[in-house]
Amino acid sequence: MRILIAEDDQVLADGLMRSLRTAGAAVDHVASGTEADAALMTNTEFDLLILDLGLPKMHGLEVLRKLRSRGSSLPVLILTAADSVEQRVQGLDAGADDYMAKPFPLQELEARVRALVRRGAGSTTNTLRHGPLVYDQSGRVATIDGKMVDLSARELGLLEVLLQRSGRLVSKDQLVERLCEWGEEVSNNAIEVYIHRLRKKIEKGPIRIATVRGLGYCMEKIT
Ligand code: CA
Questions:
Q1: Is the pLDDT of residue 42 over 80?
Q2: 52: CA distance to ligand 1 center in Å?
Q3: CATH number of the 127-219 domain
Q4: Could you tell me the residue ranges of all domains in the chain?
Q5: Ligand 1 (ion): which residues have CB within 5 A?
Q6: What's the 193 CA to ligand 1 centre distance in angstroms?
Q7: Domain 2-120 in this protein, CATH class
Q8: What is the mean predicted confidence (pLDDT) over 182-201?
Q9: How far apart are CA 30 and CA 162, in angstroms?
Q10: What is the mean pLDDT of the chain?
């Protein structure tokens, strides 16, 4: 999952990034409203926006209104000052999906992030099932026929994206976008290598990752 954090408090942003990366997310960070707006206009592969309202250059509410006016349904979690009931209400009215008042426990933020991303993907549980393969998104554990599969962080990320779009084509470019943060160099060839490794570990019984030549990959539906 790929998350954009718009937060001008560097200490808080660093803490959030560390915590969400440990939980397996690819995280990008901007520190002003204008940067957030620009990032959201040019990149459509985010799964979630964590948005501080008190941002320099452009207020968080304005960033949110502009996002929604472009028709985006990207899940948005706003961060507000603890005493600002009015800002929370304004944020929710402007199209935010959830809010957290500062300061907050990181554990709770992680749980809310999972819930929002899940809802955004149209799922109500943390578990993705694909025939004998079960993937637990909160524990980041994959099992086949109840046996744990040993996967690297990158392989888990790939598996998650393919499972979320099971039966649909996912292009190499989309995989790069969904898995990598800005400034991280991952080539299409590297994606091929990761897919190759993932296949060796999970292609058992009916589980297949099909290559659509020149286009990308598809987790074949199991009927
Ligand atoms: Ca702020």
A1: yes
A2: 6
A3: 1.10.10.10
A4: 2-120, 127-219
A5: 8, 52, 54
A6: 41
A7: alpha beta
A8: 88
A9: 28
A10: 91
